[in-house]
């Protein structure tokens, strides 16, 4: 039976079926869910371009993507903005390739400079212009991701952490830290915004975090570690299938004094096990960076990620990673600006880090 490819932006009746397909497929991730369309539109008003492959009435593949417009860079089709992993999910490689061909065709119609697939190995290449993929894809591996199975109780989780970091967590326990699970965005942003400013990183708008909690009420939560009423560290996490994924986290300078960072992630692992989750996905970090080493020290083994790019206009793919000299200069400037100013201007700068 013939495979039909549709754009679900104009076929919203398939939203429930889309999420059911993602939930049942072993490669379906939190970032593939349909509600991301609403989150993205509410935040930056990017054009959602969610492709669905159907065979008769049955869904056999999906590909979430958005047309992103950024000053000085132009248009790009990304699967999926704000995510670390996305790309096609399909019942066969042929269906996945058909979705990619359609994405390339549509990207050209949109006038996009390039297509970006996150954590997707290099797709099949073709020199046949009729396939819609005449140019070769490029691969980049600047990030690694970290994931491990959670042991069934708090003590075993702690013993699974290497000796040095386990000792740090035991020190944190002596500080009588308080762990709070909540959904207060402003409380979270008071910690996270300061942390990002100090790192020289722009912050997404408040409405983005509100949209995440609103669109994914059962799959989001915030963990905050406090000392004597002062919030030290805070992380907003995603919960999907069997996995806990801390995604946006930071802390105030005093957090290190109380060993709050490793303590918070241990507490989050425990919270996950208590609520029936069996996997902990620590997300991505640039290879050989500080966060990369921190995660390894907590007992996580890195897996190198592959991001695939296709140039549609013969120009080089923009380098927006922290090893770019221009990005480093801007990072240094940003870290010295007043917090009130970075919170106000952050959403404009963060558009380059989606």
Describe the structure.
- The chain is an alpha+beta fold and 354 residues long.
- The protein has two domains: 152 residues, Gcn5-related N-acetyltransferase (GNAT) (Aminopeptidase), CATH 3.40.630; 161 residues, Aminopeptidase (3-Layer(aba) Sandwich).
- The protein is built from eleven helices and 17 strands.
- A seven-stranded mixed sheet has the order 11-12-13-14-15-10-16.
- A hairpin with a 2-residue loop joins strand 3 and strand 4.
- Helix 2 runs antiparallel to helix 7 and helix 5 packs across helix 8.
- The longest helix has 18 residues.
- The protein is globular.
Features:
354 residues; Aminopeptidase; 6-stranded mixed sheet; 27% strand
Task: Please outline what is shown here.
35% of the residues lie in helices and 27% in strands.
Uncertain spans: 126-134
What is the residue-averaged pLDDT? Answer: 89
Question: Which geometry do the CA atoms define?
Answer: globular
Please give the CATH class of the largest domain: Alpha Beta
* Strand count: 17
CATH topology of the largest domain: the name is Aminopeptidase
How many domains would you count in the coordinates? 2
- Indicate the proportion of strand residues: 25-35%
- CATH homologous superfamily caption of the largest domain: Gcn5-related N-acetyltransferase (GNAT)
């Amino acid at each position: 039976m013939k495979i039909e490819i549709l754009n679900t932006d104009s076929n919203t009746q398939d939203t429930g079926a889309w999420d059911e397909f993602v939930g049942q497929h072993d490669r379906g991730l939190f970032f593939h869910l349909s509600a991301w369309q609403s989150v993205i539109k509410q935040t930056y008003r990017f054009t959602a371009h969610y492709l669905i492959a159907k065979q008769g009435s049955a869904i056999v593949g999906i590909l979430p993507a958005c047309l992103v417009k950024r000053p000085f860079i132009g248009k790009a089709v990304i699967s999926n903005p704000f995510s670390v992993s996305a790309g096609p999910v399909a019942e066969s490689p042929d269906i996945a390739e058909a979705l990619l061909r359609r994405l390339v065709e549509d990207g050209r119609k949109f006038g996009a400079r390039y297509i970006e697939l996150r954590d997707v190995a290099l797709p099949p290449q073709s020199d046949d212009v009729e396939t819609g993929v005449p140019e070769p894809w490029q691969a980049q591996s600047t990030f690694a991701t970290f994931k491990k199975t959670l042991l069934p109780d708090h003590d075993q989780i702690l013993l699974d952490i290497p000796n040095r970091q386990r000792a740090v967590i035991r020190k944190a326990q002596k500080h009588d830290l308080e762990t709070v699970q909540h959904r207060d965005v402003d409380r979270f942003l008071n910690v996270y915004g300061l942390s990002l400013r100090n790192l020289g990183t722009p912050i997404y708008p408040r409405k983005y975090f509100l949209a995440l909690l609103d669109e994914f009420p059962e799959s989001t939560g915030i963990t905050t570690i406090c000392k004597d009423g002062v919030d030290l560290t805070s992380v907003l996490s995603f919960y999907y299938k069997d996995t806990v994924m801390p995604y946006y986290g930071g802390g105030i300078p005093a957090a290190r004094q109380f060993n709050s960072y490793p303590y918070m992630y241990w507490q989050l692992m425990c919270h996950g096990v208590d609520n029936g989750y069996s996997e902990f996905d620590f997300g991505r970090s640039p290879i050989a960076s500080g966060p990369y080493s921190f995660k390894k020290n907590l007992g996580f083994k890195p897996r190198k990620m592959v991001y695939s790019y296709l140039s549609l206009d013969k120009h080089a793919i923009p380098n927006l990673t922290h090893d770019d000299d221009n990005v480093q200069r801007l990072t240094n400037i940003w870290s010295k600006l007043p917090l009130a100013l970075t919170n106000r201007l952050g959403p404009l700068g963060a558009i380059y880090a989606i």
